[in-house]
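Appendix B.2, paired examples.
Example (i):
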Amino acid sequence: MEISVTSIVFSFVFAALLASVWSFLDWIWLKPKKLEMLLRQQGFSGNSYKLLHGDTKEMFMVSKQAKIRPINPISHDIAQRIIPFHHRIITNYGKNSFIWLGPTPSINITDPKLIREIMLRYEIFQKPKRSPLGKLVFNGMLMYEGEQWFRVRKTANPAFHLDKLKVFLLSILQYS
């Protein structure tokens, strides 16, 4: 049996095509479903993953409805107007929930003890990698990683002590 050059090229092209289809399928369906299962095992709840768009369609719809609704002048609860989708998710699924931004889950954590643990253990809870455009647009303490984050946090922490905040608030009220 003789192997021709065209059959070798065809098999390489087929293998490359098969690998790209598999990686696309993994990115768009298998990985999000696995992440959803892991999040549910850890006690988080939220909407099921929807192919490609996740919760973004519902998020835009709820935001549009919130802008149409009039503001209640008596109530100070503005979360329904400012972040209506997050408010709805937290109301429906609890304080530890998740939403889907495309094929990527975003976790809502409102428990102060858990937030403190996450902020103190920066080596365990890694932030997702940012795109080059994201690095240009978003910068600051929330985007730093590792030792850089720890140094900036250590520098900024004394500014948020209660005594300093009181002095700052009094100076603002005095000049108003």
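Example (ii):
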Amino acid sequence: MSEWKGKCAALFGLQGVSLPDGVDWKSVYEKKPLGRNLLKNPAPQGATLDQPPPEPKLSEVPPAPHQPALIPQGDYAGWSTSAEEFHYEEVRVPEGVVVCYMPRFSWFTLEQRVDLKAEGLWDELLDHFQPDIEIEDWYEESQVHESIYQLQVQLLGADGQTVISEHVCNPREDLENYSHTWKQVSHTFSSYGPGVRYVHFLHKVKNSFMVEVRSTLVTGSSVKVKPSKSGL
């Protein structure tokens, strides 16, 4: 066993996992892909879990009347982002309520693709051992709407297109019980089959504007690979 292969075996505590000679074990050891968050910039809007979500404030520069979408401030390095305003008729108005001015809503989408092999994982581990892939995310209970968050995570094949496994989450909020806290979403992929090479992580949050801009924040996004048999 090479020096670097031995270091990887000791570091990760791998049991029953193939460690082929063709893998660059020095690179694997340096990247330490098991147990760490493989997403870049997991808190792009600046909010963190060690503090409660900030209270909404009146925007200093409200969007123009016909601005097509609402994009919250943040540093979105590592993420692909887009925003889409949806039509008023999609907003549920209680029967008998007279509406003088409808709020505008938009979905703000953040997505990121993780290349598992580029992060240091190897074919035999992914195909035969199939380590658990743990997903976690947190979103703000913003009271913007009853649907303020959506998550879609896909495990993709080597072509970057074939979906081997998928998890979708679209919670509904109870607007009568408002606590303005962080809400956790999590999922573990296991026994998903051979061929996984990418994880595509996509979440959407809803923003609104009428008199003020109100955004729904996300933070603590993570994708972690943890061999289920090793206890990592």
